[in-house]
Amino acid sequence: MRFLDVFRPVMRLLPETTTPDRRIPFNERMVWTATCLFMFMVMGEIRLYGMGKGSTVDPFYWLRTLMGSQQGSLRELGVAPVLTAGMIMQFLYGSRLISADLSRKEDRALFQGAQKVVVVLVALVQASLLVGAGAFGPISAIGGLNAGLLVGQMVISSIAVMSMDELLQKGYGFGATGINTFIAMSVCEQILSSGLSFKTIDVGRGPEKEGVVLALFQLTFRDGISGLKEAMFRSGAGNIITLLATVFIFALVNYFQVFRVELPVKHVKARSHAGMYPIKLFYTGGMPIIIYATCLANAYLLSQILYAMFPEMKVIGFLGKWEYSEFTGLARPIAGLAYYFSPPQSTVSIFTDPINLIIFVSSVPISCGIASRMWLNVSGTGARDIARQLKDQQMTMRGYRDSTVISVLDKYITPCAVVGGVVVGAIAVTGELLGAVGSGAGIILAVTTIYQNFETMYKEGGIPPELAAALF
């Protein structure tokens, strides 16, 4: 019996979306996509039942944008369980640790079913760790029943997110993966909220609008030049500088998005049937930063749990020492690996602890480059896989023998994947240091996902050629 067969009994208990037996019309796919996005957004507004009162610890604060997460809501775990489970299964398959032939329908269904079971297990572990860490109040205060209810709500919500992701993946909506679409929506939601929120806040200077654009007009009309300066550089809320940084990162990602190499291909039999096969600089899209952020989120959570349990152990302190703010409920790393792999916590800390800056600035691009290279091996997008796809479509590269196609493709695909991953990491670091709304990594995911969805819509005939020419 194969390892995957162990999951068969449990797979039957989980919801499954059948592959459509017809081509879903463009308008219907739009409706399904909008419905899933709306449901994901609503989940962020429904509070978890059973939370304690007062401030709570938030281990995921620094990475919530990349997880599409909303603290204290049904989106508490966001897409983290689905991402983590997907990475685990892809790694096991790519490393040949599990036996499966994904070209066979039965094995593919078994693999996908096993991945769903892993999603539930990961959600159960992450939810239990959050509750155990006191993210919703001490267990002694909220009680065992409420603790169990909190875990149950987060697991069920993760199953709902998994089902919506599967719905979009199987062709009912747009997007090769619903997870990226959900993250993109979360980033755009955060940017719009930062710029146009009507919420009134008071950070010690009197009442003012939370939205940057609204605050600009309010403070300028109220206080003149000093108000304009305040809107540009205010602390405790978004300001014009962070909004401009966000626009800059958007422009930077769009600039690199169009970089590509086009290789000439032709049909084996119909010689007149020829075209170009594009290999983008962002060949692996936003996956490198997703992999990096997912690993970091799980490492942060584990580090905080271990430090809370064994604060005196040197090994645990080496992994990360954490300081909790009673006012905000946030935890921030103050020493150890967790500290050095985190962005500088203030402008002053850049000069007082340059080692933190150097490690952070160098580790993210390097990690993303490595993650991008590894993703080629486990995702079926490497040179050998692309050569096989071309052969199945009876296509070959113009000017090259069939025996050399793999080496020619590899000459372009691998460098594009690695360099693209490094560029993605560098842009993410730039966004973090400039304080861009939604974080640099979040903006990268939003832009690449929206761009990919526009490409799909164009192929479906849903975008006018004039607009497509401007975009592509």
TrEMBL record:
**Gene Ontology CC annotation, any one:** membrane
InterPro entries according to UniProt: SecY/SEC61-alpha, SecY_dom_sf, Translocon_Sec61/SecY_plug_dom
The transmembrane segments are: 30-50, 77-96, 117-136, 142-162, 236-256, 289-310, 354-376, 405-427, 433-451
PANTHER family in alphabetical order:
SECY/SEC61-ALPHA FAMILY MEMBER (PTHR10906)
Note the coiled coil stretches, chain numbering: none
Q: Which UniProt keywords apply?
A: Membrane, Transmembrane, Transmembrane helix
- What family name appears in the similarity comment? Belongs to the SecY/SEC61-alpha family.
| Top-level division of the source organism's lineage | Eukaryota
What name goes with this protein? Answer: Protein transport protein Sec61 subunit alpha, putative
Q: One matching Pfam family, short form? A: SecY
GO BP field? protein transport
Ranges of residues in domain Translocon Sec61/SecY plug: 40-72
The family database entries (SUPFAM superfamilies) matched by this protein are listed as: Preprotein translocase SecY subunit
